[in-house]
Each structure stands twice: as C-alpha cells, then as structure tokens.
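Need tokens for this chain, all 278 residues.
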Amino acid sequence: MPRKLFCQYGPVCYAISTAKERALRALRDLTGGETFACRQEAESLPHMVMAHRSTLLRRLEGVDMSLQENKVTNLALAARGLDGLILEPGQTLSFWRRVGEPSAKRGFLPGLTIHNGKPGQDVGGGLCQMANLLHWLTLHSPLTVTELHHHTDALFPDSGRRVPFGTGTSVFYNNVDYRVKNETPDTFQFRVWLEPEDLCGELRCDRRLPTRLRIRERDHHYRRESDGLWYRCSEIWRVELDRDTGEQLREELVFTNHSRVMFDPALIPPEQIREETP
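Here are the structure tokens for all 278 residues:
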C-alpha cells in the first residue's frame, strides 16, 4: 500500500498543508520578479480580439442545481476584480490575485468543486467557469499562458457546451492558479460580466491586430481501451489567419485529450464511439 501524504491524515493535516502551500506561493511571488496586473479601466480598449459567452446554469448529471445557482453569485463577485483589467506589456494576470480568497465572509456561497476526480462542494465553488472563460479568450490571442492546470477526467456528459472539451483549466485558492503574461508590445484588456443566462467576456487591444486566431477540435471520439475503461479523446489545434484575406498562415497543436470517462458510459452518444485500434 502506498504511503499516505501528510495532508491525507485528516482535516487538521490538510489545513496545515494548504497553509504551507499558500505561504510558499506568496514567497515565490514576492521574490519572483513578476509584475502583476492590477489596474482596471471602465472604458473599453478600442479593438476587439475575441468575445465569448458561456451558459450559467448547466444541468449536470447528479449535481444539485442549487450549487449552480450559488455559482452565479460567486462568478459575480469574481468579476469585480477582473472586469476592465488592463494587461500592459510585461505584466502578468493572476486569477487569484484579482479574485482574492473566495470566503463566506466575502459573500461567496457553496458551489460545485472537483476533488480527486469526483464532484463535491465548497465555498466559492464554480469559479473554474470564470477561469475557463479567461483561458478561451487568451487562446485566441498572442498572450502567453504561464500557469494552467488541465482537468484530467471527463466528469460529465456534454450539456450546453459551447467550446471544445479540454480547453478549460482548474483553479484552487491560491496555489492552483491561472496566469497569463503579456510578452507583446501591445496593451490588452479583459472585460467580464454576467447577463441573465450567460457569463460574458471580451479580450480587447489598443490596436488592430494583423491576424486572428481560431481554435479547432479534431478527431473527437470516445473509445473503450484494453483496461476496460472509457476515454474521451481529441486534439485541440490553433489556426492563425490573416485578418484581411482569411488566408491560413500557420497552425499548431495546443493540447491532446485522453481523459477517463467518469460518468455512465451509457450516456455517451453512440455516433461518437470508436472502436479501439489494435
């Protein structure tokens, strides 16, 4: 039997481990030389890079809808520190430095969380949706992702999904962060807000960029492999196009999905199943 980690010996040990990791993160930030974005502007920069909206209330198999409703409150609180954020050349966006600790004292409510590949709930749950939005906008830009934590398992069947599977990110205060650095000479701005049914976002720039980026999902399918388990597989590609002519300039493989299916395989659409290649 593998030896337990210190954090696995009970709630007190877990709290001690979490506090240690948070302190180490703070120390690394203090000594790492990063300049973190902190200025928010109410006026939008003139040029749109990318816009997107995602459904607020998704019906997920086995998940209490009250957690989804609480998530809306959590997202609204998170938006306060992110909307209008200016990312100047050389600056880094840190999700948690802008959102802050998602505590009940600050008004955050219990929402859906994922721990060890299983759904649960905790105060501030559901903020991954905001990080996912930021990442989707960033994927369509020349900004550089410097910290990203992929979801490793396919936990739920699709329900109202608007972006390819595998283009999201996990966040957990504050040592599992999402960070983006502006290594370009241009200034960018994130706008995020909530509408009755959607979480909305824009990435804007101070000049018109000569190219645009698009994300393409390829070879998406489910398959049962030799271990008897089901997996969701696909490739995520980024294509760069000339903004004026539409000519494709280049493409790159961003991510390859090979995610274990954690929901009932009977819910997999039959047309998306592929036999394993020997």
